[in-house]
């Protein structure tokens, strides 16, 4: 079951660019891009907290576990 990142949707809801989020949370644009594209293997709680504060959302608004074909419920 992969964890999916829904950062684009939250950015769209807040009418914020990835560059603006990068500046707001003091994280490099490259690292946020890796997270946004789903290529990140981990995220620090402090980073997740900073993103949630900047986007005024909860972690569950950004992260979701999605079942793959053949996975048991």
Can you walk me through this structure?
This protein has helices at 7-14, 18-25, 29-36, 45-55, 59-62, and strands at 3-5, 63-65. The N and C termini lie close together (10 Å). The protein has 73 residues and is mainly alpha-helical. Strands 1-2 form a two-stranded antiparallel ribbon. The model has no long low-confidence stretch (mean pLDDT 91).
Q: Summarize this, please?
A:
The chain is mainly α.
Topology:
Layout: E1 3-5, H1 7-14, H2 18-25, H3 29-36, H4 45-55, H5 59-62, E2 63-65
Antiparallel strand pairs: 1-2
Structure characteristics:
mainly alpha, two-stranded antiparallel sheet
Helix content: 40-55%
Radius of gyration: 13 Å
Total number of strands? 2
Q: What's the tally of helices?
A: 5
Envelope shape: elongated
Task: Give the uncertain stretches in residue-range form.
Answer: none
What letter string, H or E per element, gives the SSE order? EHHHHHE
